Amino acid sequence: MELDEMKGKKAVDEKFCPDCGEIIKARAEICPKCGIRQMAPPPSVNMAPNGKSKVAAALLAFFLGGFGVHKFYLGQIGQGIIYLLFFWTFIPAIIAFIEFIILITMSDETFNARFGGASNKH
């Protein structure tokens, strides 16, 4: 490749400075060309491909599970409606507490396989 062709391409461990557009190392804190501090990468949060979080689902099951909020969050609308219809019996709250324990102990891979799709059919 010519030097001009390689100038605009970055390697795997590089990124573009959002301020000046210079290619810099991905872990660089400051751009060597313009001196602008780079944004810190977002903290690593385990989320399913559709953006659902196992921790968020578990917390919703614990605090609002009697109303089926975690079911709506996970895309299980029909089950959420059933929880809403029977919340006054406290049976959905008991089931939601069990689901909280299941969700919190579930591996990230299992959660992503079960709830990570763009649309859930269960």
TrEMBL record:
A Pfam entry, by short name: TM2
Where does this polypeptide localize? Membrane
Q: Where is the TM2 domain?
A: 50-101
Record's InterPro entries?
A: TM2, TM2D1-3-like
Q: Which UniProt keywords apply?
A: Membrane, Transmembrane, Transmembrane helix
Origin: domain of life: Bacteria
**Where are the membrane-spanning stretches?**
55-74, 80-104
What is the membrane topology listed in the Swiss-Prot or TrEMBL record?
Multi-pass membrane protein
What is the designated name of this protein?
A: TM2 domain-containing protein
Source organism of the structure = Alloalcanivorax venustensis ISO4
